[in-house]
Amino acid sequence: MTSAASEPLTPPAQALSERMAEALRQKITQGEFMPGERLSEQSLSESLGISRNTLREVFRMLAKDGLVKHAPNRGVFVVIPSIASIIDIYRVRRLIECQALAQAYPRHPAKKKMREAVEIAKTCRDGGDWLGVGTANMAFHMAVVELADSERLNQLFGSVLAELRLAFGLLRDAEFLHAPYVEMNTSILELAEAGEFARAAAALNDYLVHSERIVLAVYARHINDSGWSV
Fold first, then answer.
1. Beta-carbon contacts of residue 216 (< 8 Å; ≥ 6 apart)
2. Is the pTM value of this prediction over 0.85?
3. Is residue 171 exposed (0-12), middle (13-18) or buried (19+ Cβ within 10 Å)?
4. How far apart are CA 196 and CA 92, in angstroms?
5. Distance between CA atoms of 85 and 163, rounded to whole angstroms?
């Protein structure tokens, strides 16, 4: 007789695992877990209200996304992104975000989400909440992708943003990282609201090239200073 632990997940259990994986993915995107952090099965299963078997399935899902990794005899850890991963993340961002913005429907409701994210970022900036600015920035770029009206792209980009937030988490000066992009996001939004989608997409491409250079430069310096192995 097959043990319960080795049986395939039933559809309701699978749905629960997927919901919990998305919940943890969101926590990563919001900066609640740091790169290299060990994830406690006991505390997470208790806080999420799920069994350890379900949590292990969640970890398997997140491992497929490149967000966690299992270290034998040590446990499960949040991934530390490599420089190659960061380069690939920005390549994907340029391909997805710029096209979504360039081809956007003028009255698409996702533009309201872009505006909301910009306003939240400004409020957080004025209050010195740079973690909040980073989370608002994630929401802004997720809204840009939603302009494409593709659920598959939304799901893919959700994982990309979680990886990106881990890369940001390795950079110690959140203000230095996020401050310039509040106004850049505002400028891109204003172009989109004016119907200048081609110009908005071009501005976004320049933005992403600049962001990638900054992240890679600061990240490389921290690798040298800290001796990280990535």
1. 83, 86, 87
2. no
3. middle
4. 23
5. 9
